[in-house]
């Protein structure tokens, strides 16, 4: 084996250098950079002195195959884009006094195939000089074929004084339609199937005495029993979309809509939700409130 004395000498010098650093920094406050420098020097010394094992000391290993995929490849279908028909942002101050920005958006899957893997919804802040900053991204739930959905979100990103007029919404990640069912097992076809959304219509909006807000009654007509999540969509007197938010299981909680899934049975049912006044944007026409359902996907 070739001599390694040329490696050992520098290694000894590096270990000595590391020891001097430790001795000099010992009486000093344990500054993070000094401790890190000593540790790096010691690690470098060990790395330089390390010698590889001879070939006869290396054991053979068996290469493992790739683990089988769980479920179908959701990107195997046709790559497309959903349509953003309209959207609107509005500032609100929640019941805890925290400034928030809410977003309402109407999307459409114009294709004759289900969209189990929609792309992203990306919020951008446009500066006065035209530069854009990526603020936040959302992901819609699966969208049935030839279907329009209404969604509401609450932004978590800080705007740093950016007016809502300077916000815009795009989709930069692609969507994928359901793959060809030919070649898929019955279970895999169930994974890629998206149940039709129920029909939802607002019946009435009544004021609450306490807390300050409104109770919204709405009718749901569903072809099957399924889990859905609903969003509230706000429009002004002219019908312009000005915002939206998810309707949570507890609409008065801090994270509105964090657990908003509910089961609707087959057929017709009447549901209700409570809306805190703090979450209603300025200019919203309560006679134009809309309820938009979202689905988990298959049933």
State the end-to-end CA separation.
67 Å
Number of strands: 15
Shape: globular
How many separate helices?
3
* Strand portion: 35-45%
| Largest sheet report | 4 strands, antiparallel
How big is the Rg? 29 Å
Total number of distinct structural domains? 2
Helix content: 10-25%
Question: What do these coordinates show?
Answer:
- Helix 1 packs antiparallel against helix 2.
- The protein is built from three helices and 15 strands.
- The longest helix is centred in the N-terminal third of the chain and has 21 residues.
- Strand 9 and strand 10 form a beta hairpin.
- It has two domains: 53 residues; 214 residues, no CATH class.
- The chain is an alpha+beta fold.
- The strands form five sheets. Strands 11, 12, 13 and 15 form a four-stranded antiparallel β-sheet that branches.
Helices and strands in order, then pairings?
Layout lengths: L4 H21 L6 H18 L29 E2 L2 E11 L5 E11 L11 E6 L5 E7 L8 E8 L12 E4 L4 E2 L9 H7 L6 E10 L4 E10 L3 E10 L5 E6 L14 E4 L2 E10 L13 E6 L4
Antiparallel strand pairs: 1-8, 2-3, 3-6, 4-5, 4-7, 9-10, 10-14, 11-12, 11-13, 11-15
Helix pairs in contact: 1-2
């Amino acid at each position: 084996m070739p001599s390694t004395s040329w490696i050992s000498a520098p290694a000894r010098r590096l270990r000595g250098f590391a020891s001097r650093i430790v001795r000099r920094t010992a009486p000093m406050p344990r500054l993070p950079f000094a401790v890190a420098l000593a540790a790096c020097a010691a690690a470098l010394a060990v790395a330089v002195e390390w010698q590889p094992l001879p070939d006869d000391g290396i054991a053979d290993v068996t290469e493992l195959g790739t683990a089988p995929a769980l479920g179908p490849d959701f990107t195997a279908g046709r790559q497309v884009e959903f349509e953003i028909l309209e959207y609107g942002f509005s500032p609100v101050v929640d019941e805890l006094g925290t400034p928030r920005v809410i977003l309402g958006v109407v999307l459409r899957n114009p294709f004759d195939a289900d969209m189990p893997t929609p792309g992203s919804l990306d919020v951008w802040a446009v500066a006065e000089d035209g530069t854009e900053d990526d603020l936040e991204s959302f992901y819609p739930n699966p969208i049935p074929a030839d279907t329009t959905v209404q969604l509401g979100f609450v932004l978590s990103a800080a705007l740093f004084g950016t007016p809502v007029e300077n916000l815009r919404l795009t989709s930069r990640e692609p969507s994928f339609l359901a793959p060809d069912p030919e070649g898929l097992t019955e279970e895999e076809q169930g994974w890629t199937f998206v149940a039709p959304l129920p029909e939802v219509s607002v019946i009435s909006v009544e004021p609450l005495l306490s807390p300050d807000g409104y109770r919204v009654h709405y009718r749901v007509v569903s072809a099957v029993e399924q889990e859905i999540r609903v969003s509230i969509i706000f429009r002004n007197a002219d019908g312009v979309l000005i915002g939206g938010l998810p309707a949570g299981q507890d609409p008065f909680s801090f994270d509105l809509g964090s657990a908003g899934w509910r089961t609707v049975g087959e057929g017709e049912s009447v549901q209700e939700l409570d809306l805190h006044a703090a979450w209603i944007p300025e200019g919203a026409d309560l006679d134009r409130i809309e309820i938009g359902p979202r689905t988990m996907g298959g049933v």
